[in-house]
Amino acid sequence: MPELSPRRRMLVLAICCMSLLIVSLDNTVLNVALPSMQKELHASVAGLQWTIDAYTLVLASLLMLSGSTADRIGRKKIFQAGLVLFTLGSVLCSLAPNLESLIAFRMVQAVGGSMLNPVAMSIITNTFTDPRERARAIGAWGAVVGISMAAGPIVGGVLVDSVGWRSIFWINLPVGLAALLLTLRYVPESRAPKARRPDPVGQLLVIALLGSLTYAIIEAPDSPAPRTLAFGAVALAALTGLLVYEPRRTEPLIDLRFFRSAPFSGATVVAISAFAALSGFLFLSTLYLQNVRGLDALHAGLWMLPMAAMCFVCAPLSGRLVGSRGPRLSLLIAGVATTASGVLFAAFEAETSNVTLVIGYVLFGIGFGFVNAPITNTAVSGMPRAQAGVAAAVASTSRQIGGTLGVAVIGAVLAAGVGSSPYRDVFVAAARPGWWIITACGVLVLVLGALTSGSWARRTAERTALQLQEKEISQPTASRA
């Protein structure tokens, strides 16, 4: 790819950030609209779970496939296709006549979304070749997530209250079209020198694992036990298939040897835990503020602003801390703050008092603000440069898996507790197990942050990197033989 002028590079960064903005904003805005969607579409708690999880599930399943396909046939092509699909899916969601159609159209959105974030990161990495420029570009990219967290509840509240929940999908149309036109004009095409080969069997096993596991969890409160157990068995069989099949491939979808690195394994579980806590937190908070306190969408968004504001402030601070002192301190702060927030809600019913509610939101915002930056850094710690992209893709996939499981598990627990009772009467008690799950996620972040960022963990990463490098060297010889 030819060297671009500084102005052109900044324009490419802005275009990539636009794609991240619509994907990130879509998730935060949607949570504020859930109660309105529930009323108009007559949705159950499980139906609301599927509007979120149908998206994150497809996204998690296809992220690595989209990244490797872009490396093979062209990043610009895949990025453009993602913008078209995401924008089209948004329009279809705004027109959905019923809950089933909305869930299907959210899946169309997710197919497009899977082509945006990992591919945009590859474009940024190849556009900014100077390490310092690249670090600043990735910092700006990460700040967009904070912006979407801060703006999402307010934007969603204004749109839902003034126009209706369908309007939350309209905002993706002008941004998506603008990004598409600018990509056509200014983003150069690029490919990987040596693209990874497709792994269709591995891909199908991942889809079967995530899909059947999520279905079993979400539908467990209302489905017959044999059906739930059947989907659980499918998930177990798919996991077994991955563990048996993937190590036999020369270029597997997921190289299981990555997990011999303690920092990589720790980052994977931390990502799942942190994003499970986030998705569960937003799910419980939105339903409580609107269905129990009776707030409209805008005022519910304003109540959640302290959390979003702390995310916005702490995310860049965490990035600088990781750059200067490594990931450990950020992970410890994140674990302590998330755990404290969960305990405040679970043990002291923080939502029943305005003061403790705000404190709980502030603590959670600090925790999530500090956790995001060290995840990717820890995942790629010590990895050979040729494997860093794959490691980062697994970390991104783990985030989406966490988001899916958080809504599935905490929503199922809430649905079982509420039953057929009115929300106002039983919500606080029914949500308590969900808050304890969020507390457990915070404890996991804290413990793994301490265990997987020390000298022992670094040694395991170095050994893993050496084994992966030896594999890279031996592969050409094996292929010639």
TrEMBL record:
Bilayer topology reads: Multi-pass membrane protein
Q: Which Pfam families match?
A: MFS_1
* TM region positions: 47-66, 78-97, 103-125, 137-156, 168-188, 200-218, 224-245, 266-288, 300-317, 329-348, 354-375, 405-423, 435-457
Q: Can you provide one Gene Ontology molecular function annotated for this UniProt record?
A: transmembrane transporter activity
- GO CC, any one term: plasma membrane
UniProtKB keywords: Antibiotic resistance, Cell membrane, Membrane, Transmembrane, Transmembrane helix, Transport
Q: Which one GO biological process term can you cite for this protein?
A: response to antibiotic
PANTHER family to which the protein is assigned, alphabetical: MAJOR FACILITATOR SUPERFAMILY MULTIDRUG TRANSPORTER MFSC
What does the sequence similarity comment in the record state about its family? Belongs to the major facilitator superfamily. EmrB family.
Protein name in UniProt: MFS transporter
Organism, by scientific name, is Streptomyces sp. R21
